[in-house]
Write a structure and sequence with these properties.
The complex is a heterodimer of chains A (336) and B (405). Chain A has helices at residues 2-29, 35-41, 47-56, 63-75, 89-125, 130-144, 147-165, 182-186, 192-230, 233-240, 245-282, 288-298, 301-329; strands at 81-82, 87-88. Chain A has 13 helices and two strands. Helices cover 77% and strands 1% of the residues of chain A. The mean pLDDT of chain A is 86. Chain B is mainly alpha-helical. A two-stranded antiparallel ribbon of chain B has the order 1-2. Classes of the chains: A mainly alpha (336), B mainly alpha (405). At the A-B interface, α1, α4, α6, α7 and α11 of A face α6, α8, α9, α14 and α15 of B.
Chain lengths: 336, 405
C-alpha cells in the first residue's frame, strides 16, 4: 500500500507537468497581450515604454522559456503579479479567493451528502413505492437542471418574488458575499453569531444551487448501490439467520453499499470546485471561479494560471485519494 | 399440439424488435421520445413555425414601447430587451442546441470508440514505435506505412532534441556568459552544471537514436492521456479554449474562422466539447474490449485469419453497441448543457444568433423588471436535457440483454 502510494505520487509529477504546460500554452496563445489594455487606457504611451513593459513582463521571450521561468518561480510560491488587482496573483487566489470557494463548495458538498445518503437509502428500502417513484423523478429533475437556470430561478423566487408578496419573508441578497470580516469579530465590533449568521444567510442560495446536481446524482447512485447489495447472498443469509432487519440493513448492507459512493464523492469534489465558476458568476460571489472568469475577460492571465494550476493539482490529488480510500474501506481491494 | 400452436403464433423477433418492446414499457422514456421528436421537428421547420424573425428588431417611433412586452397575443412569450420576439428566438434556439448536442455526442462517441478499442485490443502487446536509422532488425521497412513513420520519427526525435538543447541554452546562457566574464556566483556555476548535464543527456539520446529501437504499448499511451485529460479542470479550460478559438484577432482564431467558415462559433463549440467528451466513451469501450478480446469468438476470428482492424471493428465494436448507444444518448444531453453553460457565460455562441444559453445571459440582468425572459429558455434547456436523460435510461433498460420480457 505504501509503495503503491509512493508510485502514484511519483506518477502525478509528469501528469501535473503536462497539464501545466498545456494550460500555460493555451493562456500564452490567447489573443492580445496584457499590454493592449494599457494602450487603450493611455493612448499617449510611447512605443519605447511599451517595449520596456514588454520586457518587464517577460513577453519578449518565446513561450517555452516563459513557461520554465514561470515554473521555477511557481514552485517557490511566486505566481507573478496580477495587473488588475495590483498585487501578487498567488495572494489573490490562495489568500483571498480560495477560502471563499472552499466555504461555498464545502457547504454544498456536505449538504448534498447529508441529503443524498438518507434519501437514497429510504428510496432503495421502499423500492417501487410511491415515495421511491417520487424520489427517482426528482433526482432526474435535479441532474437535468442547468445550474445557471436553477440559480436564476432561486434568485427570482427568494430575492424578488416572495419578499415582494410575503411581508415577513426575508429578502435574500442578490450579492452573496457578506461584508463582515473576521477581524471585526476580534475587535468586538460585531458578535460571533452575527458574523456566522450573516455569512450563512447570504450563502443559502448559492449553496442550494451548487449542491443540487450532486445531491440528485448521489441519491441515484446510493439507491442503485444499496439495491445491488440487498440482492446479494450474504444479505439473504443474514436475514435467514433471523437478524433484525435494522442490523441487516445498516450493518451488513449499507457498509458495502457505501464503498462505490466513496470513490464517486472523491472524484466529484474537483468538479464541484471547477463548476463553481457558474454559481459564483450568477450570485456575484468573489471566489476562485469568479476570479478565473474575470481574469480571462480582463486578460490578466497570471491569476487564471495560478487558479488553474491549483485546480489541476486538486484533481490529481483527489483522484489518488479516491483510489486509496477505496482500498481503505474495501478490504478486498489490495494495491501492489 | 398446444405447444406447437403457441410456437406458431409467436413470430421470430430480432434483437431490435425485442429492445423496442422493452423500451415501450418505459413510460417516461416514451414521453421523452415524443418530446425529442417534437424538438427535432421544431428545429427543422423553424422558419415556417416561428411567427417572427428571431433577429428582427422593431423600427419606427416609440421604440421603447416594443421592449420588454409581457406575453400577449402578438408575442406569446413577450419581447426581449431589443424588442425581439422571444418565442421565435426559442424556436430558432432549438436548432443550435440540437445541432451541437447531436454532432458533439456523435463525434465524441466515434473518437472515444476508436481510441478505446485500440487501447483495449492492443493492451499488453507493445508495437514497434521507433527504429533507428542504423538498427539491424528483420522487416524494419515493412509494411510501407511503418517505413514512412520510421523516417518521420527520426525527424521528430532529432527535432525535439534540438529544441531541448536550445531551450537549455536559452535558460542558462546569460548566466554562463556572466560566469566566463568573471562573475563567480553559485547561481552561475549551477547554470553551467545544469547545461552540461542536459546537453550530455541529449547527446546520449542522440547516440541511442542512431542504433536503438523502442516498442510502445498503445494502451499505456491512450490510458495515460485519458488520465491526463481528467486532471485538467474541464469547465475553466473550456472557457480558455473558447476564448482562444473564437477570437478573430489572433492567429489561432483566424485559422479556426477559415476552417469552419460561416458558422464558425457553432463548430468551435462542438470541437471543444468533443475534446473533453470522448473520454467517458473511451474508458467504457476500453474496459469492454479488454474482456471481449479474451472470448472465444475473438479467438475464432483470429484463427480464421481476420486482420486486426477487422476483428476490432467487425467483431468487438458491435458487441459494445448497447452501452455505447446509452452513453451517446446521455452525452447529447450533456453537450446541450455544456453549450448552454458556455453561451450563458458569454464564452459560447455569440448574439445576435439566438441560443437558449445566451438568451439567459441577458435575462439575468432583467430579473427584477422582466423575469419572464429567463423562464422560457431555461425551461427549454431543462426539458431537453431531462428528455435525453430519460431516453438514455429507457434505452439502458431496453438494450440490456439480461432483462427479458
Amino acid at each position: 500500500m505504501f509503495a503503491y502510494t509512493v508510485r502514484r505520487l511519483l506518477q502525478m509529477i509528469p501528469l501535473l507537468f503536462a497539464a501545466s504546460v498545456v494550460i500555460f500554452t493555451l493562456l500564452a496563445l490567447q489573443p492580445g497581450d496584457p499590454l493592449d489594455e494599457l494602450r487603450q487606457q493611455n493612448p499617449r504611451i510611447t512605443a519605447e515604454q511599451l517595449e520596456q513593459l514588454r520586457r518587464a513582463y517577460g513577453l519578449d521571450q518565446p513561450v517555452y522559456v516563459r513557461y520554465f521561468k514561470w515554473l521555477g518561480r511557481a514552485i517557490q510560491g511566486d505566481f507573478g503579479q496580477s495587473r488588475t488587482y495590483a498585487s501578487p496573483a498567488g495572494q489573490i487566489i490562495f489568500g483571498q479567493r480560495l477560502p471563499r470557494t472552499l466555504i461555498l463548495s464545502g457547504a454544498a458538498l456536505t449538504l448534498a451528502l447529508l441529503v443524498a445518503i438518507p434519501v437514497g437509502i429510504f428510496s432503495a428500502v421502499r423500492q417501487y413505492s410511491r415515495a421511491d417513484y417520487l424520489i427517482t423523478f426528482f433526482s432526474f429533475v435535479g441532474f437535468s437542471m442547468p445550474i445557471f437556470f436553477l440559480g436564476i430561478l432561486l434568485l427570482f423566487v427568494f430575492a424578488v418574488w416572495l419578499p415582494e408578496r410575503v411581508p415577513w419573508f426575508p429578502k435574500f441578497p442578490v450579492q452573496s458575499i457578506s461584508d463582515f470580516q473576521w477581524s471585526q469579530v476580534l475587535s468586538g465590533e460585531i458578535t460571533f453569531f452575527q458574523f456566522i449568521g450573516d455569512w450563512a444567510f447570504k450563502l443559502v442560495l448559492p449553496v442550494l444551487a451548487l449542491s443540487t446536481i450532486q445531491m440528485a446524482s448521489w441519491t441515484r447512485y446510493m439507491r442503485a448501490s444499496l439495491l445491488e447489495v440487498l440482492n446479494q447472498d450474504y444479505v439473504r443469509t443474514a436475514r435467514a439467520k433471523g437478524l433484525n432487519e435494522r442490523i441487516v440493513l445498516y450493518k451488513h448492507a449499507l457498509r458495502n453499499a457505501l464503498i462505490p459512493i466513496v470513490t464517486l464523492v472523491g472524484l466529484a469534489i474537483p468538479g464541484v470546485f471547477g463548476g463553481a465558476v457558474i454559481t459564483e458568476t450568477i450570485f456575484s460571489y468573489p471566489g476562485m471561479g469568479r476570479a478565473i472568469f474575470d481574469s480571462l475577460v480582463e486578460k490578466d492571465y497570471n491569476v487564471a494560471m495560478a487558479a488553474l494550476a491549483f485546480l489541476a493539482l486538486l484533481t490529481a490529488t483527489f483522484n489518488l485519494l479516491a483510489d486509496l480510500m477505496y482500498a481503505v474501506v474495501d478490504p478486498r481491494i489490495r494495491y501492489s | 399440439m398446444a405447444a406447437v400452436a403457441t410456437a406458431s403464433k409467436q413470430k421470430p423477433q430480432s434483437t431490435w424488435a425485442l429492445a423496442w418492446r422493452r423500451f415501450r414499457k418505459h413510460k417516461a422514456a416514451m414521453v421523452s421520445l415524443g418530446v425529442v421528436i417534437t424538438l427535432i421537428l421544431m428545429a427543422i421547420f423553424a422558419p415556417w413555425i416561428a411567427p417572427h424573425s428571431p433577429t428582427a428588431q422593431p423600427t419606427g417611433e416609440n421604440l421603447a414601447d416594443y421592449y420588454f412586452q409581457g406575453p400577449s397575443r402578438e408575442h406569446w412569450l413577450g419581447t426581449d430587451e431589443l424588442g425581439r420576439d422571444v418565442l421565435s428566438r426559442i424556436i430558432y434556439g432549438a436548432r443550435i442546441s440540437l445541432l451541437v448536442g447531436f454532432v458533439a455526442a456523435f463525434a465524441a462517441a466515434l473518437l472515444g470508440t476508436t481510441l478505446g478499442v485500440i487501447a483495449g485490443y492492443f493492451s499488453g502487446r507493445p508495437l514497434r514505435f521507433y527504429v533507428g536509422p542504423f538498427a539491424k532488425v528483420a522487416g524494419g521497412w515493412k509494411p510501407w506505412p511503418f517505413a514512412l513513420w520510421r523516417v518521420v520519427s527520426w525527424v521528430l526525435l532529432y527535432g525535439l532534441l534540438f529544441l531541448a538543447a536550445d531551450l537549455a541554452w536559452e535558460l542558462s546562457g546569460a548566466n554562463i556568459q556572466a560566469l566566463f566574464s568573471g562573475t563567480l556566483t553559485l547561481n552561475n556555476v549551477l547554470s553551467l552544471l545544469g547545461l552540461a548535464l542536459v546537453w550530455g543527456l541529449i547527446l546520449f539520446i542522440a547516440g541511442w537514436g542512431l542504433f536503438g529501437q523502442g516498442k510502445i504499448d498503445l494502451d499505456v499511451i491512450i490510458s495515460r492521456f485519458m488520465d491526463f485529460m481528467l486532471t485538467i479542470p474541464e469547465l475553466p479550460l473550456l472557457l480558455v479554449l473558447s476564448a482562444l478559438l473564437r477570437d478573430t484577432q489572433g492567429a489561432v482564431g483566424q485559422w479556426a474562422q477559415n476552417v469552419f467558415g460561416e458558422s464558425a462559433s457553432v463548430f468551435i463549440i462542438i470541437t471543444i466539447i468533443v475534446l473533453f467528451g470522448w473520454i467517458g466513451t473511451g474508458r467504457l469501450i476500453r474496459g469492454a474490449v479488454l474482456s471481449l478480446r479474451e472470448q472465444d469468438f475473438t479467438t475464432a476470428a483470429q484463427a480464421l485469419g481476420a486482420g486486426d482492424a477487422r476483428i476490432m471493428f467487425r467483431h468487438l465494436v458491435p458487441n459494445t453497441l448497447a452501452p455505447l448507444i446509452v452513453n451517446a444518448t446521455l452525452a447529447i444531453g450533456g453537450a446541450i448543457l455544456t453549450e448552454a453553460a458556455l453561451s450563458f457565460l458569454g464564452f459560447g455562441i455569440q448574439p445576435p444568433v439566438a441560443t437558449w444559453g445566451n438568451m439567459l445571459t441577458k435575462a439575468q440582468e432583467y430579473i427584477f423588471t422582466a423575469p419572464w425572459l429567463a423562464l422560457a429558455p431555461g425551461f427549454m434547456i431543462f426539458l431537453t436535457v431531462l428528455a435525453f436523460n430519460y431516453l438514455g435510461d429507457g434505452l439502458r433498460d431496453a438494450l440490456d440483454p439480461r432483462s427479458r420480457l
